[in-house]
Amino acid sequence: MHTRMATILTNHLDATKPNCRALTGAGVRPALRADWNFRVPDLLVTFVRNERGERDAPSPSVIIELLSPSNMAETWDNVRNYMTLPSVKEIHLISTLRVAAQVLRRNADGHWPGEPVDIGPDDSLNFEPIDLVLPLKAAYKGTYLE
Question: 121: Cβ–Cβ under 8 A, 6 or more apart, which residues?
Fold first, then answer.
């Protein structure tokens, strides 16, 4: 699912927003304790190029995490840290156990909602910063959950 989502995002960005990139393995430094607090989301989207050799993704706009029972506590800890980054507009958490997701989207006033929005199998993921609406089932194509 990780590779599939990266491919979907990259193809969409190449076609519609060539200055924007989907990255895997790129880290972010949350505002809290940025000197040592380094997190690596499963996927992220940024509109800013990083410098050669730099492991940090500058100004991520969208962060995507794959959520499984073995990493749930760590992932939600990461989410709280991602929310401290002013550039982050959306955080998508996609389940690895069932066709489901949760989305946190920063409000127009810059604040985060108290609870994520649940996305079900017949719903779509709406990546607003990159103008992509993706049926959730498309993320699971080729997996045992298809």
Answer: 99, 100, 136, 137
Using DSSP, state whether 62 is helix, strand or coil: strand
DSSP SS3 for 76: helix
- Quote the pTM value: 0.91
Distance CA 102, CA 79 (A): 12
Terminal-residue alpha carbon distance, the chain: 11
CA 136 – CA 146 distance, rounded (Å) = 10
Which residue has better confidence, 54 or 89? 89
Token pair for 130: 């990159």
Q: Please write the tens of the pLDDT for every residue from 80-98.
A: 989 999 999 999 999 999 9
Determine contact, residues 1/94, Cβ cutoff 8 Å.
Answer: yes
Q: Provide the β-strand partners of residue 101.
A: 94, 119
Q: What are the structure tokens assigned to 86, written together?
A: 């002013």
